[in-house]
Design goal:
CATH superfamily of the domain at 1-79 and 93-178: YVTN repeat-like/Quinoprotein amine dehydrogenase
Strand order of the largest sheet: 3-4-5-6
CATH class of the domain at 1-79 and 93-178: Mainly Beta
Structural class: mainly beta
Strand content: 35-45%
CATH architecture of the domain at 1-79 and 93-178: 7 Propeller
Radius of gyration: 21 Å
Largest sheet: 4 strands, antiparallel
């Protein structure tokens, strides 16, 4: 909630009141909560979820009997040197968390976006430090999303009008797209490692497929007609070619992807077409290997000489 509390509801109950709710006595956030996410049950089989807030805390909430208990997992400390107060005690300032996402393959690993434009790589096991920090955007980060197939690739979007595609091992983005308006959300498709969609404050939805066109969207469509209506969130249906887009007036628009947005590139003669998660990872990896800095690739692994030569030749 905007007042900093989190709540858990049981939709099977006729009673519409929350079953659990945080209060000022049990760790309530002091600023708005922007995102919550269920996690796997803990070692004692208790339900638990995470929340991120502008107060700079990422919190794990555990449902134990009738209580909601909390543990601070990460405090988003700013990199600036601490200010000295009159008494000489250092003041530690915290960044404002806006979004997070957990890795699909390594669920201890997660990334957090902030209002300052940073993206922090974090672990559930280390609550005092970040594993890495990316100077990702010039303005607030609105969403960070791991790729559904590739364990090292994620997307981010921001109020600075951009969507960026990242490899967790590289400090610079692999792709940058300027969409001409603040980008409220970005989401990877569940059926392809190279397809993602984004929505913007000027009411448009974009669909990209890196395997078809690395530089332009396949689709750019106005979704909300009313002026001054911002699209804030977007998501794919997990089983059908359907997108849902939410706006700041509380409306949800359901969109169906046309067949040309779902077409698969034809295989060349003599080539076998392969399906499944491994094929999706290989498809995305092939595209990214042409983009990564040749010097970085050469330094990281001599096993990738072929990709390096291909990039050098292209340049």
């Amino acid at each position: 909630f905007y007042d900093g509390s989190v709540a858990v509801y049981n939709i099977a109950d006729e009673n519409k009141q929350p079953k659990y709710q945080s209060t000022s006595r049990n760790g309530k956030h002091t600023d708005p909560v922007w995102q919550v996410s269920w996690q796997k049950d803990d070692l004692d089989n208790n339900l638990n979820f995470f929340s991120v807030s502008s107060d700079g805390r990422v919190v794990c909430w555990t449902l134990i009997k009738n209580d909601l208990t909390y543990t601070d997992v990460v405090q988003l400390k700013l990199e600036k040197p601490a200010n000295q107060t009159e008494e000489g005690l250092p003041l530690i300032s915290l960044g404002c968390g806006t979004c997070f996402d957990f890795n699909q393959q390594q669920d201890y690993l997660f990334i957090v976006g902030t209002e300052e434009g940073k993206i922090h790589k974090c672990s559930k096991s280390y609550n005092n430090q970040f594993l890495d920090t990316f100077d990702a955007h010039h303005m607030a980060v609105y969403a960070v999303r791991w790729n559904k197939f590739h364990p090292k690739v994620f997307a981010s979007c921001s109020a600075d009008w951009s969507v960026k595609i990242w490899d967790i091992n590289y400090k610079d983005p692999l792709f940058v797209y300027d969409l001409g308006s603040p980008v409220g959300d970005v989401i990877w498709a569940p059926y392809s490692s190279t397809v993602f969609a984004a929505c913007t404050a000027d009411g448009k939805v974009y669909v990209f497929d890196l395997n078809v066109n690395k530089y332009e969207p396949l689709c750019e469509q106005m979704v909300v007609q009313k002026k001054r209506t911002k699209l804030t969130h977007i998501t794919f249906n997990q089983h059908y070619p359907i997108l849902l887009a939410g706006d700041d007036r509380g409306n949800i628009t359901s969109l169906k992807l046309s067949p040309n947005l779902r077409k698969r590139p034809k295989a060349k003669k003599g080539q076998e077409t392969t399906d499944g998660p491994e094929a999706e990872v290989a498809k995305l990896e092939k595209i990214l290997s042409l983009i990564r800095d040749p010097d970085d690739v050469r330094n990281k692994s001599t096993a990738q000489k072929g990709a390096t030569n291909a990039v050098s030749g292209a340049n």
